[in-house]
């Protein structure tokens, strides 16, 4: 592949290989993406704290390394924008909060350190909701990130800037984090791929609570192969983290090609009525279930029982938010959006018995899912209960006429899976009649990311939805 054949929708692997073989320089690749950012970011508002000159200096150093014949990393020369909740040393990192509007960390956190060490060229940050709370990306510093497929709609969140930047061709890879769906929901809304890994698959350092198990970090990309490339950099043990899985990141770099014939697939649109699902989302999930059966998979309608997931997730989320932000809210009560402030205050009323109950329930949920996957290879269900909603709303007010009372109600299809501890992959699956993307969620047993990526690649090829690009200039 020559430099003339590389464009902003080439795969990350194609770009990486072209730089390594000197068919295109890191500087040329950067300028290609800076041009795309200049053409689209004014509409989409995905990338914030953009610094082209610092990026050009980094790209020049990358080219000099190659010229000297030095060994380079697996992401060498690829432009990269980090989620604005992730600390990048010397780079403005706001978390979408006015309380951190001018915050500049002194050092990289681990997930950033690994990506930069792998050779990525930092161009900026990606937009987030305030403190990454909620699955619609807006904040008082940078405003709202909108959907590349329809700028009147939400890009999801909290990794909404990451997903929108990928879908728009501004970057070839992106990172994110996920508590209640923050890697999966924006991937679904923006027709890209997002993985919520198992706990500690991607270790975190430094962090206020390394033992907190609901929030994880992970990769996003435009296809499964590229996502696996980024996961191979992010994953693997680190001595500074008190938790972490021993499997090296390199184990995920190559995704084996498998067929769908004989695969044991459980499909559930709503986990036996556990939540409401928009009719168009239901249609996409059911259409993919039929396609899986046509491809030879053994498809059955079956759902695990996750009745305790609602109380478990909401209790642990409120507890975590109170521990992280309670003191700040008390000191700056007018510096938090109302929905987040309410969620933090809920945590103040929790008792030790409440938290203990939530962790006991989480253990039961995990055991139940392990038993479920003794007979099933993969669970297929919606990522989001709704297609992309209006960017003017904080969250969808209703689903099929059923009112949604809080900014969490419509995210149950994602956060019910969070508290099981299972890895979950959002794959582009189809579109509504308006042309809005809809993803499906693939879930496998805990600590089975390699198998999940193999299945995800096969499903991605079956749906073909990821090939559809937004109509941007």
TrEMBL record:
InterPro entries: Amidase, Amidase_CS, Amidase_dom, AS_sf
Recorded superkingdom: Bacteria
Pfam families, per the entry: Amidase
Domain Amidase: 28-453
Molecular function as annotated in GO: catalytic activity
PANTHER family listed in its UniProt record: INDOLEACETAMIDE HYDROLASE, TRANSAMIDASE
Name of the protein in its database record: Amidase
Organism: Aeromicrobium piscarium
């Amino acid at each position: 592949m020559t430099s003339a054949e590389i464009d902003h929708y080439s795969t990350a692997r194609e770009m990486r290989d072209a730089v390594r073989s000197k068919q295109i320089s890191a500087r040329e690749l950067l300028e290609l993406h800076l041009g795309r950012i200049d053409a689209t970011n004014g509409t989409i508002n995905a990338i914030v704290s953009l610094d082209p000159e610092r990026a050009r200096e980094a790209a020049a150093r990358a080219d000099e390394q190659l010229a000297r014949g030095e060994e380079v990393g697996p992401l060498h020369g690829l432009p990269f924008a980090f989620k604005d909740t992730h600390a990048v040393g010397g780079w403005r990192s706001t978390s979408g909060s006015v309380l951190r509007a001018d915050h500049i960390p002194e050092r990289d956190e681990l997930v950033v350190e690994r990506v930069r060490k792998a050779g990525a060229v930092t161009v900026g940050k990606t937009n987030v909701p305030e403190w990454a709370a909620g699955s619609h990306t807006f904040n008082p510093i940078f405003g709202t990130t909108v959907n590349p497929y329809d700028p009147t709609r939400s890009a999801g969140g909290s990794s909404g800037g990451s997903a929108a930047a990928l879908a728009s061709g501004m970057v070839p890879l992106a990172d994110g984090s996920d508590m209640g769906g923050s890697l999966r929901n924006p991937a679904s809304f923006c027709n890209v791929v997002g993985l919520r890994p198992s706990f500690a698959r991607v270790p975190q350092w430094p962090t206020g609570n390394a033992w907190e198990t609901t929030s994880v970090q992970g990769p996003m990309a435009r296809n499964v192969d590229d996502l696996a490339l980024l996961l191979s950099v992010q994953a693997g043990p680190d001595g500074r983290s008190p938790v972490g899985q021993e499997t090296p990141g390199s184990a995920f770099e190559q995704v084996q090609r498998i067929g769908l014939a004989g695969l044991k697939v459980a499909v559930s649109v709503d986990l036996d009525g556990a939540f409401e699902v928009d009719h168009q989302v239901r249609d996409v999930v059911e259409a993919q279930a039929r396609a899986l059966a046509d491809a030879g998979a053994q498809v059955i309608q079956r759902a695990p029982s996750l009745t305790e997931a609602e109380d478990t997730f909401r209790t642990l989320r409120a507890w975590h938010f109170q521990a992280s932000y309670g003191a700040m809210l008390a000191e700056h009560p007018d510096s938090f959006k109302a929905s987040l402030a309410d969620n933090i205050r809920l945590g103040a009323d929790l008792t030790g018995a409440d938290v203990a109950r939530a962790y006991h329930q989480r253990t039961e949920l995990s055991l139940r899912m392990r038993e479920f996957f003794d007979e099933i290879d993969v669970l297929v269900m919606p990522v989001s209960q709704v297609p992309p909603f209006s960017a003017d709303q904080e969250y969808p007010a209703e689903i099929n006429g059923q009112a949604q009372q809080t900014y969490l109600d419509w995210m149950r299809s994602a956060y019910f899976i969070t508290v099981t501890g299972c890895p979950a992959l959002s794959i582009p699956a189809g579109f509504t009649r308006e042309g809005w993307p809809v993803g499906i969620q693939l879930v496998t047993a805990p600590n089975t990311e390699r198998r999940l990526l193999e299945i995800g690649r096969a499903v991605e090829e079956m749906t073909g939805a990821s090939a559809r690009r937004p109509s941007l200039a």
